[in-house]
Specification:
Length: 429
């Protein structure tokens, strides 16, 4: 793609369009977590809040089990049929999952069929998200251009976080206009219905996106060779590198995002409303920091940011969580939450472009998606479940050490790996 003004307009339009779709995808995914406190008793009635949250968190984790399958299937699909085709298919599956959750009756009405349908819907959404990450990371990285790749690819996490913020904003609005009884009885269905409708709109947006030049220029015969066996046989170092550099980062991300809201209620003792407000404010600042860190990586490289995350995360994770556990001040909770998120920015802002830069075009989407999904399933998807399980057995602090150790392991990988800004496989011409 040349640098003419027309091409730049196409580039920006494509990045905005791809990012908007990513926002809706992640809104649909995170709305489950944002409203767990309300619908957990509907699907898993037990009278014990921790047990209900644990059951809902288990379903959240189950959704992650399908992410490697989605990454494998849609990664190959996007490498062979195009990034645009992969993005369109992923949002279609997410739409179906959201609408299923929105209309499923509770346990009191249909018994075990209720949690069963919930699991099926999350499996479908897991396939969607598994493919979405790789397709969107590849699309934004290839569309961004050589000198602004870190900046523009960071919008994957801007929109990912924005999707979570929109989910929390919907929760805040519903908390303001509905009573707690109404929200727990039927109001929690509204955000899932909104997500399904938005996904339909995104489907039409993504059908009009431009294809990336990297995919167009890739050899047609090479595209057909994309596959899981090919990936781990021909690019084993790169594939396992993605798994290793993802493990600590994704665990820390989910600890400070999806789990944090429950932690503030279940451990710190804040009200649901206060916990939502604290989480929303911290995530908003976190979101604004992503393009700043991405642009910084375009100047100084990707490696310094990841190493910074590894060092600070190893040193301060335990301290942040133990301080959050005993604080009664909303402002203190906000500052501590934001501190943790700012540390994680060293990973989130550039992880998409780092992975994309490791692979050639014909297998890039699969190379980004599948190893990431495997690591995310093992460490990210189980974060809430592990944290709640440790709390249930009376050793909540073990989770803080678990996150710290995984970040330290990733730090070793960051220190040893090459800086992908200077060793990139992405070619625009």
């Amino acid at each position: 793609m040349t640098s003419s003004s027309i091409d730049e307009k196409v580039r920006l339009k494509s990045i905005v369009g791809g990012s908007a779709g990513n926002l809706v995808e992640w809104y649909d995914w995170y709305v489950y977590s944002a409203f767990t406190l309300y619908f957990a008793p509907i699907f898993f009635p037990s009278g014990d809040q921790t047990a209900e949250l644990l059951s809902a968190a288990a379903v959240f984790a189950v959704g992650f089990l399908m992410r490697p399958i989605g990454a494998w299937f849609m990664g190959i699909y996007a490498d062979r049929k195009g990034r645009k085709a992969g993005l369109t298919l992923s949002v279609t599956l997410m739409c179906l999952g959201s609408l299923m959750i929105a209309i499923t009756p509770g346990y009191a009405t249909i018994g075990l069929a209720a949690p069963t349908i919930l699991v099926l819907a999350r499996l479908l959404q897991g396939i969607s998200v598994g493919g979405e990450y790789g397709a969107s990371a590849t699309y934004l990285s290839e569309m961004a251009g050589r000198n602004r790749r870190g900046f523009f690819s960071s919008f994957q996490y801007v929109t990912l976080i924005c999707g979570q913020l929109v989910a929390l904003a919907v929760l805040l609005v519903l908390q303001a206009v509905l009573t707690a009884e109404q929200l727990q009885s039927w109001g929690w269905r509204i955000p899932f219905l909104i997500g399904g409708i938005l996904a339909i709109a995104v489907f039409y947006i993504r059908r009009g996106l431009a294809e990336t030049q990297s995919f167009i220029n890739a050899d047609a015969g090479a595209k057909k060779s994309s596959g899981g066996w090919v990936l781990f046989r021909q690019y084993p170092k790169e594939a396992f590198l993605v798994i290793a550099l993802t493990s600590g980062g994704t665990l820390a991300f989910y600890a400070y995002t999806t789990y944090l809201q429950k932690f503030l209620v279940n451990t710190s003792g804040f009200s649901r409303e206060a916990a939502t407000e604290i989480t929303t404010a911290a995530l908003f600042v976190f979101m604004l920091c992503q393009p700043i860190a991405g642009a910084l990586s375009d100047r100084i490289g990707r490696k310094p940011l990841m190493v910074g995350f590894g060092i600070l995360g190893t040193l301060f994770t335990y301290l942040i969580f133990t301080s959050l556990a005993v604080t009664t001040s909303a402002m203190t909770a906000f500052v501590l939450s934001l501190a943790g998120l700012l540390i994680v920015t060293g990973y989130t802002s550039i992880n998409a472009v780092v992975k994309a830069e490791l692979f050639p075009a014909h297998i890039r989407t699969l190379g980004v998606a599948l190893p990431y999904a495997l690591a995310n399933t093992i460490f990210g998807g189980t974060a809430e479940f592990v944290a709640l399980k440790f709390k249930q057995i009376g050793h909540e602090e073990w989770f803080f050490w678990y996150v710290t150790i995984m970040i330290a392991i990733s730090l070793v990988v960051y220190v040893r790996m090459l800086d992908t800004k200077y060793h990139s496989h992405i070619r625009e011409d």
